[in-house]
Amino acid sequence: MKLVDKVHIMEVGPRDGFQSERKWIPTETKIEIVNALSRTGVPTIQVTSFTHPKAIPQLADAEEMMRGIDIVEGVSYRALTPNMRGLQRALAFKDRLDGVSVMLSVTESHNRANGNRSIADTFAEIEAMAPVAQEAGFIVSGSVICAFGCPFEGEVPLSQLERVAERYLALGITHMSLADTIGVANPLQIYRVASHMRANYPAVTWTLHLHNTRDMALANVLAGMQAGIDRFDGGVAGLGGCPYAPGASGNIATEDLVNMLQEMGIETGVDLDKVLAIARRHEAFIDHPLDSALLRAGKRSDLKPAPQAQQKVAVLEAGG
Ligand code: ZN
Q1: How far, in Å, is the centroid of ligand 1 from the Cα of 210?
Q2: Tens-of-pLDDT digits for all 320 residues of the chain?
Q3: What fold, for 8-317?
Q4: Distance CA 152, CA 168 (A)
Q5: Is 242 a known active-site residue?
Q6: Which one from 242, 248, 279, 294 is the annotated catalytic residue?
Q7: What's the rounded Cα separation, in Å, for the pair 13 and 239?
Q8: Is residue 48 within a helix (H) or strand (E), and if so which, with residue range?
């Protein structure tokens, strides 16, 4: 099986993960987590979203976050900017941020649920935002939201993904993320869609943003790599969701993603032990079970003494 040699991970837990938590997470805790993540070798971290504080109260501290985090060399810091107002807030941190993400749903109903306006209206604003962000030197990434299925419209024809990709391309946006926002994709679908989009838009650098809602995220990573995708988002401790996508659950846990890739000999540059330790720290401030296989089971290399050896030790101890 031919796969990619190296995978680039963007850590989105501090944004996608935290935004779906109802219980307030203190800003200093969030900053601690980002600072620890900055020292794991993960190349890109999405720190926050400059969204309206009433829309997502958990991320109302975006400015404090951006001011408070350490900027570690070699790490690229990103933020989500859902509208022009958000972009203007992000511009105040252009010496700390390398890039911003904009987002467009592939269906009218999800776009309305997410942004309270039509795709055309959202796109008109992105049209105004793109040159401003590019002028500031930001890498602009366009998220293709609900690319694999919509909670209101179900299956989404490829033509709707193509339309979004073409709109982004027309604005010079060449980084795009195919988002399985509600976690409905299956591996064959991922393979087909990713192959199709890569073949049709070779100028685009594609990322897969996967949610593990139906336990298929790791299988989807494998299918994505088979289609040649080498960029994936992960959320430490498997937090995440979408406040406007009913039933959506966590991002693929970064530690599970790194673990699988490492076991397969695919380079990520990420220190698994460090990510796992950060995931474990979430147990202290997240008030629900975490969706992380590695937190439950540990690494394969965490060997336990064989029952026979244990008996021997017991005999020796008893005799000695
Ligand atoms: Zn997401």
Answers
A1: 7
A2: 888 999 999 999 999 999 989 899 999 999 999 999 999 999 999 999 999 999 999 999 999 999 999 999 999 999 999 999 999 999 999 999 999 999 999 999 999 998 889 999 999 999 999 999 999 999 999 999 999 999 999 999 999 999 999 999 999 999 999 999 999 999 999 999 999 999 999 999 999 999 999 999 999 999 999 999 999 999 999 997 555 555 667 999 999 999 999 999 999 999 999 999 999 999 999 988 898 999 999 999 888 888 876 666 666 666 55
A3: TIM Barrel (3.20.20)
A4: 24
A5: yes
A6: 242
A7: 6
A8: strand 44-49
